[in-house]
From TrEMBL:
Residues 1-17 form the signal peptide. GO terms for biological process: positive regulation of amino acid transport. It is found in: Cell membrane. Pfam families: Collectrin (PF16959). Its main location: membrane. It comes from Cephalopterus ornatus. GO terms for cellular component: extracellular exosome; plasma membrane. This is TMM27 protein. Keywords: Cell membrane, Glycoprotein, Membrane, Phosphoprotein, Signal, Transmembrane, Transmembrane helix. The chain crosses the membrane at residues 146-170. It is a single-pass type I membrane protein. PROSITE patterns: COLLECTRIN_LIKE.
């Protein structure tokens, strides 16, 4: 009875060994750089981490296709090295002796790359699927809508323009008033000042040039000619 059970198991193990090997059909190589990514906080790659990797691949397959029934046991790892590199394949859950096409596995990994990276605290550069191209992280959407930001910028520009016009207008008005006042003062200085003397208006004498009083005759007319 025991031999009857061991025989199928050995056959399955041999079949799995043939399915998962370097450069096998539908196989992918993975290279992980934990020390580079985490430094002193790096964790050891052990059987538990391998189990988590299988679980994440199975999750990616099931999430990619709602019809997929991939189990953790369907994800096979082989040629694991101490520098943390290995190969893996995903077997068909219905037959378990054939592998899922590589294109399907690649599409599932690409679709769930961020989730897989997050599970191991790594990135595309430190968790490398060598035959699968890296995917860009989804763009981070700002908490404030873009249109609201643009509206705020335009509104600020308009308000700044209005303030500038008001301030410049006030400054021009003050300057104009100042020039008008200075012009009036200058005109008052140039204008002849009229004062009242003995109740009669007369011009202010020019101290430097003097002024001839017409009431008295000039010196040369004081005597009549003979």
């Amino acid at each position: 009875m025991l031999r009857a059970l061991l025989l199928p198991l050995s056959v399955v193990a041999i079949a799995h060994a043939e399915l998962c090997k370097p450069d096998a059909q539908n196989a992918f190589k993975v290279r992980i750089s934990i020390k580079t990514a985490l430094g002193d906080n790096a964790y050891a790659w052990d059987a538990n981490e391998e189990y988590l990797f299988k679980a994440m691949v199975a999750f990616a397959m099931r999430r990619y296709s709602s019809k997929s029934t991939t189990q953790i046991s369907n994800v096979l790892l082989c040629n694991v090295t101490d520098r943390v590199s290995f190969w893996f394949v995903v077997t068909d859950s219905s037959k378990n002796v054939t592998t899922v096409p590589g294109s399907v596995v690649e599409a599932a990994i690409r679709m769930n790359r961020n989730r897989i990276n997050s599970a191991f605290l790594l990135s595309d550069k430190t968790l490398q699927f060598l035959k699968i191209t890296s995917t860009l992280s989804p763009p981070v959407e700002p908490s404030t809508p873009v249109w609201l930001i643009v509206f705020g910028v335009v509104l600020c520009v308009i308000v700044a323009g209005i303030v500038f016009l008001v301030v410049s207008g006030i400054q021009k008005h003050k300057k104009k008033n100042k020039e008008s006042t200075e012009r009036e003062n200058l005109e008052e200085k140039v204008e002849v000042t009229v004062t009242l003397e003995n109740g009669m208006p007369c011009e202010v004498l020019d101290v430097k040039a003097g002024h001839i009083n017409g009431v008295f005759p000039a010196d040369d007319e004081r005597f009549t000619s003979l």
